[in-house]
Amino acid sequence: MNLETPRTTVRPFVPEDLDGLQEILGDAETMRFSQPPSTRAQTENFMREFCIRRQGGLAVVRRADGKLIGYLLLHETAPAVYEIGWFFNRAVWRQGYALESCRTVIDAAFDRLGARKIFAETADPARSVPLMRRLGMRREGVQRMQVVLPDGRPADLHLYGLLREEWAEQQAGPMLAVQ
Fold it and tell me: What is the total count of domains within the chain?
């Protein structure tokens, strides 16, 4: 799937993306609510096996300079039900790239893939939950102390989802501002 946004290209990964992906997955702050930072060898294996061979991830590339700035997951977990997830380079946080890219991927999932539902989960209530809400997702629940963070602390897992009907209503209404 190749998608264009005003500032990014969302496309399959290629081997040349390794350095950019390592900047993301190797950063402790970026990975704080997910898993320990990846070594270069771990990132290379993940990119080769999951992102490229299994086509399990999408690269987000900034169009202005061709730099890989994000990783997006769009995975069908049941017929017409897709999980979306993301990691973005900390240098581009709070610049709207995640919102812009995720919104475009969600649109494609509903339009092109026939998705009935898109969902996301996170242990990061401060950064990811607000993005999920801005994407039009609704809170579906919290699994209390469901996950263990890389630092060993247990954390709640926040679940959000967006149904095709809700997405269609959003498309008919005013656009959410990109900030």
Answer: 1
Q: Can you give the chain as a three-state secondary structure string?
A: CCEECCCEEEEECCHHHHHHHHHHHCCCCCCCCCCCCCCHHHHHHHHHHHHHHCCCCEEEEECCCCCEEEEEEEEEEECCEEEEEEEECHHHCCCCHHHHHHHHHHHHHHHCCCCCEEEEEECCCCCHHHHHHHCCCEEEEEEEEEEECCCCCEEEEEEEEEEHHHHHHHHHCCCCCCC
pLDDT digits (tens, 9 = 90+) for 98-116: 999 999 999 999 999 999 9
**Residue 17 located in a structural domain:** yes
**Looking at residue 161, which CATH number applies to its domain?**
3.40.630.30
> How much is the pTM?
0.91
Containing structural domain, residue 162: 3-172
